Amino acid sequence: MSQSEGEGSSARTGISVVHSWTMRILGSVGGLILATGVLGTVISSYFQERSWSYQKRADKIDKDAAAAVNALDSLNKIIDEKFLSTYALDDAIKTRAEGDKLNEAVKRFYAADKLWEQQHQGLASTLEVGVDSQFGIDDLGATGLAKRADCTHYTLGGLQRDGGPLPVRAVLEVAYACQTKLKENIERQLSRRDQNKGAWPETTTEPDPGRVMLGHVWRVENVLQCLMVQRAVEIRNQPIGTSTVPFGEPAIGVPYAISDSDRAREERCVEPYRDDAGFGAASDAAR
Predict the structure, then answer these.
(1) Could you list the residue range(s) of the whole structural domain that residue 139 is in?
(2) Domain total of the chain
(3) What gap in Å lies between CA 39 and CA 43, rounded to an integer?
(4) Cβ contacts of residue 188 below 8 Å, gap of 6+?
(5) Quick check: is 46 in a domain?
(6) pLDDT at 13 over 60
(7) What angle do CA 31, 34, 35 make, to 5 degrees?
(8) Residue 91 domain-assigned?
(9) Phi, psi of 35 (to 5 degrees)
(10) CB 84, CB 104: distance < 8 Å
(11) How many CB atoms lie within 10 A of CB 73?
(12) Phi and psi torsions of 14, nearest 5°
């Protein structure tokens, strides 16, 4: 009887050990399955977050590049007609034009000037916020200096601080300041004609002797248009980087970077004006 009870006890002990190991194994397997599921969810979420960050970055670059191109389109429409109409009226005054030729030149000039005045401030804000600030350019000093441009000498000197990028807002303000001076000179001569009973006085002062100011305006506007094209390209070529930290903030990348090659291309926008024998920086020293 005692032997049977001992054998039964041993059997139950063996069964208990087997059961215990079985539960451990099942628990381990279950834990592994659970851990694998959680890990899979984490990995899936991480790559989904990376995908969202990538798309958000790509969308921002597309949006900013499109904004720069739209600003360039608006800029081209305004400054090209403003320059051509100013040139035509300056010529009409120099040649003491009368009749339809003078009237058409005056009408065209004021139509272009009205558009220029209506859109200048909005365009200036767009260039400052939508283009300059994207590259970390915030130079109110350059803008203030641009508004005081002499317009008979090289006008971009001092606008590039510490070899940094040239603010496109400041370049626009140079063009605006010089166009304003030209307008004042033109209106002074038209006023003298009106005071002379609608006929040119015996002596007429040219609004822009030697077309010096127009020469500077034309070169400044070429620089501005070239820079705007370059900035749009620079935005488009930004790397689409994303955060490497799971669930971290997307790497939006503002301000955008300007590479050495970008800087070199921007310099090529400025060089034709800066190195011009008659209008560039060196011409001032030769006077």
Answers:
(1) 63-286
(2) 1
(3) 6
(4) 205, 207
(5) no
(6) no
(7) 85
(8) yes
(9) -65, -40
(10) no
(11) 11
(12) -65, -45
Confidence class for position 69, pLDDT limits 50, 70, 90: confident
Q: DSSP characters for 138-190?
A: --HHHHHHHHT--SSS-S-TT-S-TT-PPPHHHHHHHHHHHHHHHHHHHHHHH
Count Cβ neighbours within 10 Å for each residue of 127-151 and write b for 16 or more, e otherwise: bbebbbbbbebebeebbebbeebeb
Per-residue model confidence (pLDDT) at position 87: 97
Q: What pLDDT, on the 0 to 100 scale, is given for residue 24?
A: 60
Give dist(CA 49, CA 249) in Å, integer. Answer: 10
What are all long-range contacts of 56-60, with beta carbons under 8 Å and residues at least 24 apart?
A: 56/250, 56/252, 57/240, 57/241, 57/242, 57/250, 57/251, 57/252, 57/253, 58/240, 60/252
- Asked if residue 87 belongs to a domain, the reply is yes
Backbone angles phi, psi at 25, to 5 degrees: -65, -45
201's enclosing H/E stretch is none
Length of the chain: 287
Q: Position of tokens 């005081």?
A: 148
Residue 75 counted as domain residue: yes
**Alpha-helical runs (H) found in the chain:** 2-94, 99-126, 140-147, 168-195, 212-236, 260-274, 281-286
Residue type, 64: D
Cα separation, 183 vs 178, whole angstroms: 9
Count Cβ atoms below 10 Å from residue 274 Cβ, excluding itself.
18
pTM above 0.85, yes or no: no
Residue at token pair 């508004």: 147
The residues, ordered by sequence, that sit 6+ positions from 251 with a Cβ below 8 Å of its Cβ are: 53, 57, 241, 242, 243
What is the SS3 assignment for 207? coil
Residue with tokens 């006023």: 191
> In terms of C-beta density within 10 A (0-12 exposed, 13-18 middle, 19 or more buried), how is residue 273 classed?
buried
